[in-house]
Amino acid sequence: PRSFGFPSKFNGVENPTEILVEIRTKTRAEVLVKTQTRFQDEYLFVFLKKTGEWKIDSYKSRRYGGEVWDSRIL
Hints:
Elements: E1 18-25, E2 28-34, E3 41-50, E4 53-63, E5 70-72
Antiparallel strand pairs: 1-2, 2-3, 3-4, 4-5
């Protein structure tokens, strides 16, 4: 697939309608970001704690209300 950078990859993340953080384990956390865009995208970021720092490991996206998450490449 092609990407031209518009709209931005994380369209709507700057002004989310909701952010939910869930600590799964002491080294894994998930952050759900709901946006208020034309498509009402949702993003699920997976953070892993390595050497004392939290870093984004991966993310998934879906349209609001969808049941299936699509894995994405950072």
